[in-house]
Amino acid sequence: MELLPQLLVNGIISGTLLAIPAIGFTAIFAVLRFPNFSVASHATIGAFAGYAANVWLGLPAAPALIAAFLVAALVGLASDEIALKPLRPYGALTAAIASIALTIVLENMVRFGFGNELRGYDLPLVRDWRIAGVRVGPQQVQNLVLALIIMAAVFAALKFTRIGKAMRAVADNPTLAELKGIDPVRVGRLTVFIAMGLVGAGGMLLGLGTSIDPLTGFRFILPIFAAAVVGGLGSIPGAALGAMVVGIGEELSVLVLSPSYKSAVGFVAIVLVLAFRPRGLLGERAY
Amino acid sequence: MLSYLLATLTFAGVYALLALGLNVIWGMAGMINLGLAGFFALGAYASALATVALGLPIALGIVIAIAAAALAGALLSRLTLNLRGDYLAIVTLGFGEVIRLIAANEIWLTNGSDGIPGIPGPFRGALTPLQFNALSCGLLLLAVALAWFLTERLRRSPYGRALRAIRDDETAAAVAGKPVRLYKVQAFAIGAGLLGLAGAAYAHFTSYVAPDIFRPLLTIYIFLALTAGGTGNTSGAVLGAFLVIVILEGSRFIEPMFHGMSGAQGAALREIIIGSVLIFVMRIRPEGLLAERPPKPVEP
Fold first, then answer.
1. What pLDDT, in 10s, does the model give residues A190-214?
2. B83 contact residues in A (CB cutoff 8 A)
3. What is the ipTM of this complex?
């Protein structure tokens, strides 16, 4: 089977990229306790912000990625304050429904501004490398490295900074965290900012390989949810691990399924995990 | 103009059926279903295939559509019975997307993204378009009235009371001896059946189905209908559905006021309005226009 190494390499690369938005989704779930479906539109917003920085301002991919992070983070924070935060007291499901409505609003704002046509990033054309029969693009390697740097920064921040500790404390036990003098509202805001920034950067990283349109984010939500659920909702290392499982699983699925069903692999993974191990690989109980 | 009004009223009927179906699942039994576009699609495709590919009569196609959607609902809810609501939200959203993927990719069955044209409608050949619209509108309103009557009876029955008890406190309902798991699967299946009926009605009225029609946007329309009308209130569901149509069609008339807007921009603006209205309604009147009122106890 000479296809296998190639599929594994592709899977590892796409799994690493997928981990970035999946970490964002799961972080919001951990701290604010609801599935925020507006990650779809924030991934799109990040992809378009990166596009604007890359094509209009002529920046290379790495600085454009910072623009993607910042724009998605700011839009995420603003829309959360306006639309979702006031609804959270009514329960996780109310907030979840509102987050779909928010996705529709934001996605259509992008459509209003940019239209429906496909857009490609302005990237230098380079020949693929061939290493032991496996074909890899230098751009893919660059994306992989960028994603790994972002992931390392997230893990370091969570582990070593006061803010990271405060986030983990609120995720673990909000009441106790508040007693210890941590302001859950501030931590919530910070979480939304960073998480939506990660989702935006992830949207751009995933979009770099293909072209983007207003539905870009929506196309990735099944694999993003799947990564988070497989790893265990609310667990950040879990989301990274889950993304790897889903990324490799999607690539290997082309051995048995038509490639158009790649994103259905995520759904199958969700159902299987919830049926047999609802708390995922590294997460809490689902019921 | 009359034809347009009748067609709009027919669509309102389809939305009302969807809202009534969602009301059983979400309003009465408290189970979230973000994949209702998937059940709608299932009903539409089932009836379309039964009548176009197998040449069955329309009535039988509709029965097949209801059965297919109800069966899918029973299976999905049986699989997810133990899950907490937020997980169910993810699974049902995923279900809707997978149904759309299948509709777009199983070309031998569904004709892929080209869709299935030429779905028969009742007496379509024998009537003028206006008469056909009038007939469909009448049939749909009749179906809505019937669905309203049946789900309202369901709501007032001891079964409906048990569903509300399960929604409000599952553990307490189980302690009181209610078969919680069975009732939840049944309620999901009944609601999904109504969603399938709406799909079949849509297919036979418009004569065409394609995967693009079943985007998650529809889910937002129906949640808006139910939330605005009053979650848990049967009449509220119907009222909300008509309200959504008024907003959708009304915003078509705002469009010409902005000059130089492309078609895509107009459509985007409409969807922005719908999404914002849903968030706004949830914020200022979460109980909806017609709040849920438990049926009055019978005086001795």
1. 999 999 999 999 999 999 888 899 9
2. 274, 278, 286-287
3. 0.86
